[in-house]
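Key result, reporting period 2: structure in, sequence out.
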């Protein structure tokens, strides 16, 4: 195969044929690396702040982290008050933090799940790279107040 033919082939074919020697990361690998940095630099400090504030009120917090998600569950004694989980949501041009909230409704009889996106003060969705620790803490406590209201 001459170099002219090689230049005309799409890059995915070259990666498929010579996958072991590729020097580029795929989009999925890049997004995973970005999410791992996001967890390390933003989510962990935010969850630490949330856990510290909740410990002052006698709550216990269980943290769980995987490559694909980071979650926090709040307990009042043995009763679960709320679950808060952050995952990456891949859009065509960027990755945003998707949040799943799990709380009880109607005096604890049913579990309610909802998904929200982090937004800035203008109501626009923010990306992983634009998110700061305060955004996560504010979002958590906004929904935590709703969870507490549902229990009574």
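The corresponding designed sequence is given below.
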């Amino acid at each position: 195969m001459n170099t002219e033919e090689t230049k005309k082939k799409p890059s995915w074919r070259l990666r498929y044929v010579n996958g072991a020697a590729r020097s580029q990361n795929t989009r999925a690998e890049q997004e995973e690396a970005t999410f791992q940095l996001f967890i390390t630099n933003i989510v962990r400090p935010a969850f630490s702040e949330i856990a510290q504030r909740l410990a002052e009120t006698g709550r216990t917090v269980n943290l769980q982290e995987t490559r694909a998600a980071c979650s926090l569950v709040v307990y009042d004694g043995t009763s679960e008050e709320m679950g808060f989980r952050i995952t990456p949501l891949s859009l065509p041009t960027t990755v945003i933090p998707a949040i799943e909230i799990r709380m009880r409704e109607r005096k604890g009889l049913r579990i309610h799940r909802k998904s929200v996106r982090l937004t800035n003060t203008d109501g626009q969705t923010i990306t992983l790279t634009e998110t700061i620790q305060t955004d996560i803490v504010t979002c958590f406590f906004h929904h935590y107040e709703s969870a507490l209201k549902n229990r009574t």
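The CA atoms of residues 118 and 124 lie 8 Å apart. The chain has one domain: 26-151. This case is discussed further under Risks and Mitigation.
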